[in-house]
């Protein structure tokens, strides 16, 4: 048996535990891993030379596929370049398994080449770290090695998902002899059986009563993958209790819950507009007494600051496991359930089983694999088949027949007195949302605008193809999209690196998504600093004909002109904006992207239909604007918001 057999077995363990995609960066020390993964018949291997880009591409693959992706790199600083993506994956709860090749332990700190201290390389930003045995000649060491890889994959996918490092010390020789075939043994693996926590019916009844009796209940969703089960449960909950539901664009609550579902149940999404209204009466009318939250971070600073300021008497956060942040400084209760299960159980109290009736069938949902509005596909394109999950204690009954609810309507769980009180709280939320929707449409269509990126993005978002995966780069791109929202009824799932909110891997993440979803349009909306910072995202040999990049190039970090503080400083242009004169045409040529350049509304309207057309292939649309003009127009927008509101 080869001395590297335990290493060669790693791809087999990955394949048995559901990992189908590996992103590796070339190197010598990682050669045994590279060869083993490349030769395994069930693993799709992609090579990306830049480790920082490789890690974010892996993150994009895992985001889109909703399962763990493996990364492989050589020893030394290669693994350090994974760090930004590792931190993003940790805070965004994306499962990555990082196989970092290393020198044997006796050569650490001995001035050997490409040697650093790699044990626990990512510290508090990884869920865990494992050290592979340096010598695996003994049967116990082989068992240990197999167990480590199984445990690492299980830990990465266990809720809350995240990155896990497996550091692998390797001794020479690294390469098999010419003509030597690798053997993939059928090794023993340890599987995690997913389950979903349920609360006792008595506890759920107490929670329902608290929701029913409180007239000022507000639901706020943070960043969350698109999930049809959650969308349906939330809309049923909102109708049953007559409560407003608010979500940023990255919460993916804007998606239709079902083809025949009443779109008046669409959650509110224009809080960035109406929360900016300086109207004390409005703020008082919107004040919640019971705040119910789920998901991760918020984009809307206005909503975040408002909730911190009003301090609801009660704040429940719904999360099945893991640490919970007290974002609004008012947390009073953590409810350990999946959000879809919580809202469904509250909207539909379980009916008693009739004599002889068994438990209803339930659908398996892995901790990271919540249902998506888009069809999920396996490595060969086959649809995943859901399996029964015996670990789930009980399922909420599904409503019979198509769901068609009106909003506002009489809450199905409320007395007349309760319904009247809740309607009084719901009314100003609906009025504010309706005003913001009308205001935005009127403002964005006003004639004689200077060419600016805010309006340009508004027009581009209106033409997004259906079933688009929309990636929003950090800085102004994600903020613009959150203000503007997405076309009603359109199937557009939104992704953004809001775990750490850095610009360093936004393009790479979108490319990972394009590789994972070749049959869907993937659109990246990005600014010039984020785009040029991550140009190595395109440095690979894999076609992405479904990728469209919309680049806002104002030749500066334009956000600093819109933030009080830096925009008043004489150092603004040189030290905050960091002005640059780059254009993306050469990048498009280097990486075989079809290039469109626009600098007027007429050019934009002409380019968009061709740019989005499926036959255009991988394309880049560069929207060139002037940073001071953008800042002036956006300030005009903000002034109009402050003065145009009428209750």
What's a quick, concise take on this entry?
With 647 residues, the chain is an alpha/beta fold. The protein has helices at residues 5-8, 10-16, 31-39, 51-65, 77-80, 83-92, 139-157, 201-213, 228-241, 271-274, 280-286, 301-310, 339-347, 416-444, 453-462, 476-484, 506-516, 528-533, 572-577, 585-590, 601-612, 627-644, and strands at residues 21-24, 44-47, 69-73, 96-102, 128-131, 163-169, 217-221, 245-247, 290-294, 314-318, 333-335, 468-472, 492-496, 522-527, 547-553, 594-598, 619-624. It folds into 3 domains: 4-169, 3-Layer(aba) Sandwich (Rossmann fold); 201-348 and 409-429, 3-Layer(aba) Sandwich (Rossmann fold), CATH 3.40.50; 446-644, Thiamin diphosphate (ThDP)-binding fold, Pyr/PP domains (Rossmann fold, 3-Layer(aba) Sandwich).
CATH class of the largest domain: Alpha Beta
Distance between the termini: 78 Å
Number of domains in the coordinates? 3
Per CATH, the architecture of the largest domain is 3-Layer(aba) Sandwich
Estimate percent helicity. Answer: 25-40%
Largest sheet: 6 strands, parallel
Counted by DSSP, the helix tally is 22
Number of strands: 17
């Amino acid at each position: 048996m080869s001395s590297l057999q335990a290493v060669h077995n790693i791809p087999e363990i990955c394949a048995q535990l559901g990992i189908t995609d590996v992103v590796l960066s070339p190197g010598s020390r990682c050669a045994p891993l590279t060869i083993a993964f490349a030769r395994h018949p069930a693993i799709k291997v992609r090579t990306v030379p830049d480790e920082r880009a490789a890690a974010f591409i892996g993150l994009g693959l895992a985001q889109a596929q909703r399962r763990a992706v493996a990364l492989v790199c050589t020893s030394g600083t290669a693994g350090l370049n994974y760090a930004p993506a590792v931190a993003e994956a940790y805070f965004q709860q994306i499962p990555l398994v990082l196989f970092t090749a290393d020198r044997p332990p006796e050569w650490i700190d001995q001035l050997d080449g490409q040697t650093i201290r790699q044990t626990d390389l990512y510290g508090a930003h990884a869920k865990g770290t494992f050290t592979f045995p340096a010598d695996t000649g003994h049967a116990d060491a082989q068992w240990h090695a197999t167990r480590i890889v199984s445990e690492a994959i299980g830990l990465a996918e266990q809720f809350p998902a995240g990155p896990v490092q497996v550091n692998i010390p390797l001794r020479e020789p690294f390469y098999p002899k010419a003509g030597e075939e690798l053997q993939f043994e059928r090794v023993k693996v340890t599987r995690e059986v997913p389950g979903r926590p349920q609360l006792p019916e008595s506890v759920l009844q107490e929670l329902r009563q608290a929701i029913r009796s409180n007239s000022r209940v507000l639901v706020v969703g943070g960043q969350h993958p698109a999930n049809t089960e959650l969308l349906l449960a939330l809309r049923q909950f909102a109708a049953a209790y007559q409560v407003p539901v608010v979500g940023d664009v990255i919460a993916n609550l804007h998606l239709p819950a079902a083809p025949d579902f009443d779109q008046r149940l669409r959650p509110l999404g224009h809080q960035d507009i109406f929360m900016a209204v300086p109207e004390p009466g409005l703020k008082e009318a919107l004040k919640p007494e019971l705040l119910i939250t789920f998901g991760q971070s918020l984009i809307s600073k206005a909503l975040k600051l408002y909730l911190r300021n009003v301090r609801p008497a009660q704040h429940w956060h719904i999360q099945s496991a893991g640490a919970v942040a007290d974002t609004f400084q008012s947390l009073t209760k953590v409810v350990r359930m999946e959000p879809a299960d919580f809202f469904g159980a509250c909207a539909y109290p379980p009916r008693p089983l009739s004599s002889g009736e068994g438990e209803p069938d339930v659908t398996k949902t892995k901790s990271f694999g919540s249902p998506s509005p888009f069809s999920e596909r396996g490595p060969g394109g086959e649809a995943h088949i859901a399996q029964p999950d015996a670990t789930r204690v009980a399922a909420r009954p599904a409503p019979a027949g198509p769901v068609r609810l009106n909003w506002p309507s009489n809450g199905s769980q409320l007395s007349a007195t309760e319904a009247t009180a809740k309607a009084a709280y719901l009314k100003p939320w609906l009025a504010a949302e309706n005003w913001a929707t009308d205001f935005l449409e009127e403002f964005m269509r006003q004639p004689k605008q200077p060419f600016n990126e805010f309006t340009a993005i508004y027009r581009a978002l209106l033409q997004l193809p259906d079933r688009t995966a929309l990636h929003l780069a950090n800085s102004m791109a994600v903020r613009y999209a959150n203000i503007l929202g997405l076309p009603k009824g359109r199937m557009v799932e939104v992704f953004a690196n809001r775990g750490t909110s850095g610009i360093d891997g936004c393009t790479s993440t979108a490319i990972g998504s394009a590789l994972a979803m070749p049959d869907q349009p993937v659109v990246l909306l990005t600014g010039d600093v984020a785009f040029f910072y991550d140009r190595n995202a395109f440095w690979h040999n894999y076609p992405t004909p479904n990728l469209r990049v919309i680049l806002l190039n104002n030749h500066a970090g334009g956000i600093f002109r819109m933030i009080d503080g830096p925009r008043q400083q004489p150092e603004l242009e040189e030290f905050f904006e960091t002005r640059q004169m780059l254009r993306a045409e050469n990048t498009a040529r280097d990486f075989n992207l079809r290039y469109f350049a626009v600098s007027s509304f007429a050019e934009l309207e002409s380019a968009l239909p061709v740019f989005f057309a499926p036959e255009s292939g991988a394309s880049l649309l560069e929207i060139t604007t002037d940073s001071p003009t953008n800042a002036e127009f956006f300030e005009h927008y903000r002034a109009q918001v402050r003065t145009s509101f009428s209750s």
